[in-house]
Amino acid sequence: MMLRYLVYTFAAIWLIHVFWPSVAHAQQQPVHASQCQAIAEAIPQATFASFTPAAATKGQTAIGEVTISYLGHSTFLIETPGGVSIATDYNGWFSPATPPTVATMNKAHSSHYTLTPDPAIRNVLHGWSDNGMPARHDLVVGDAYIRNVTTDIRAAGGMEHDGNSIFIFEVADLCIGHLGHLHHELDDSHYRQIGRLDVLMVPVDGGLTMGAESMSRVVSRLRASLILPMHRRGPPIDAFLDMFGDGYDKRFADSASIKVSLRSLPSKPLIYILKGV
Description:
By secondary structure, this protein is of the alpha/beta class. The protein has helices at about 1-25, 35-40, 190-195, 210-220, 240, and strands at about 65-70, 75-80, 85, 100-105, 125, 140, 145-155, 160-170, 175-180, 200-205, 225-230, 250, 255-260, 270-275. A hairpin with a 2-residue loop joins strand 7 (about 145-155) and strand 8.
């Protein structure tokens, strides 16, 4: 009996010795850290190269270069150097030639989401939650890290808390943000959660989301190098552009696609209107 006890005790100690380090290691695995938050204030004086946008050519994306294509309304297709494709505010109407790897959605209007996405899309990320809690996304897909920051949306009788998400895509050392259907100005907690943005996709409808003046304050505070207007409904885009003075360059593109890398970001903030906006 004593011998059996000693055998069992030795076996238990051996199992703990062999497996405990790996269990402890798994429990201590950190959540993926956001470089956009970590270095938001680290390079305030950074000066980047002159930005020379080029039409995207399939199969010719350089290492560290991200291709961004405007598909319509508030849907962009982001293609990473590692082959991940992300469709923003995906509604099924403005779809890329092949199903994207990731589709993000918001629910302010049916033009920003679909409940019947292509089943070939492996990652469908809702900017809202159905359980009364804020939607939380924090995942790595290939060479892209994707997270969200929730905001409120207008609803019958007031505001619905956390009904919209600002999605942030960290890829190729770039921090790319999509404001979704933003209905209110951001507070300090939002800006802290967002961190640094290099590329910003911003609605410029002038009222369905926010007025041009309010939206321009958000854009100015986020300090992105490359600003891509979207969601243009109602007033001409000039109403949005007029909110920005000589501290910004403004340019209309002759293509719906651009390639951008950390090194090619403009030294002066550029509002770049892709073809079709």
